[in-house]
Design goal:
The protein has one domain (24-323): TIM Barrel (Alpha-Beta Barrel). Helices cover 39% and strands 17% of the residues. The protein contains 11 helices and 12 strands. The strands form 2 sheets. Strands 1, 2, 3, 4, 5, 8, 9, 10, 11 and 12 form a 10-stranded mixed sheet that branches. A two-stranded antiparallel ribbon has the order 6-7. Helix 7 (228-240) packs across helix 8. Bound molecules: ligand PBG. Ligand PBG binds next to helix 6.
């Protein structure tokens, strides 16, 4: 008779033992909840491809922020849908733009909730691209100035952190110096450092009404096949002053998350994006997957890969599940 000396099953016998040896734990502390603010009053419109997520007017966003806070989620990530879009995305850097007004309203009512803002032009431009377009091309350097302006107006309105998602070269440096010159040395930057040109953003573009009107984003967002380039992008952002680096999307990029955390040891965020959320939702609605178990498994995997922070549309559900 052969008896294995080491039996991994010994420590799997019951939940208390499993708890004792569990290597990764998901906590509400890890979560950031994205929100979409739109014009109007008492306005709430469900995003059809993201059940349970809404475009909401400022009054309702404030109520939502209170709920997020009461669930113990430390932070929200704010996206804006402007009244009017134009060629240069004017409302992105208007001190009375939709996001700037929303920040003021939220910080007034829920001051201890961390408000992070997406810094990009695509939600505000008529063509839907993340920068200034000339002759069908997205121009890098003149976009930088506008992004810095956008970040400054967010900070002036009371944002706690800014998150540039445009993928222009040099934007972290431009935003850092813009913030510093205006007295916002202590506002951190969470940079979308390794952001791929991904098909997983489809549902978000419905939410933010930011689908490019021509072409795609492959001339500025990263090619999903590249990991060495992702490391270079992160290195650049850190040199330029990023405080938190982000990988996006998450589920198809676990190797990037791992490599980046290992190489740089910086606070690392992963964006569990709209398409990742919608896939789980759709399968759960069909009764094909158990939404709670699958979501917790995915988020634990993202954490195990090396993420410290997860931006997820499931944040409120997870907070409730972890309480229960
Ligand atoms: C804006 C932006 C996008 C997302 C976050 N910021 C869309 C895009 O780049 O097209 C995607 C988020 C998601 O899919 O959940 N640049």
């Amino acid at each position: 008779m052969y008896y294995p000396a080491y039996r991994p099953r010994r420590l799997r016998k019951n939940e208390n033992l499993r708890r004792m040896v569990r290597e990764t734990s998901l906590s509400v502390d890890d979560l950031i909840y994205p929100l979409f603010v739109a014009p109007g009053k008492n306005f709430k419109k469900e995003i059809s491809s993201m059940p349970g997520n809404y475009q909401m007017s400022i009054d309702l966003i404030v109520e939502e922020a209170k709920e997020v806070r009461s669930l113990g989620i430390p932070a929200i990530l704010l996206f804006g849908i402007p009244e009017k879009k134009d060629e240069v995305g004017s409302e992105a850097y208007d001190e009375n733009g939709i996001v700037q007004r929303a920040i003021r309203a939220i910080k007034k009512e829920v001051p201890d909730l961390i408000v992070i803002t997406d810094v990009c032009l695509c939600e505000y431009t008529s063509h839907g691209h993340c920068g200034i377009v000339r002759d069908g091309e997205v121009l890098n350097d003149i976009t930088l100035e506008l992004l810095a302006k956008e970040a400054i107006t967010h900070a002036e309105a009371g944002a706690d952190m800014v998150a540039p998602s445009d993928m222009m070269d040099g934007r972290v440096a431009a935003i850092r110096s813009g913030l510093d010159e205006n007295g916002f040395q202590d506002i951190p930057i969470m940079a979308y450092s390794a952001k791929q040109a991904s098909a997983f953003y489809g549902p978000f573009r419905e939410a933010a009404e930011s689908t490019p009107q021509f072409g795609d984003r492959r001339a500025y967002q990263m090619d999903a096949a590249n990991i060495l380039e992702a490391l270079r992008e992160v290195e650049l952002d850190i040199e330029e002053g990023a405080d938190i680096v982000m990988v996006k999307p998450a589920l198809s990029c676990l190797d990037l998350i791992h490599a980046i955390k290992k190489e740089f040891g910086y606070p690392t965020a992963a964006y569990n994006v709209s398409g990742e959320f919608s896939m789980v939702k759709a399968a759960a609605e069909k009764g094909w997957l158990d939404e709670k178990r699958v979501t917790l498994e995915i988020l634990t995997g993202i954490k195990r890969a090396g993420a410290d922070i997860i931006i997820t549309y499931h944040a409120k559900d997870v907070a409730r599940w972890l309480q229960g």
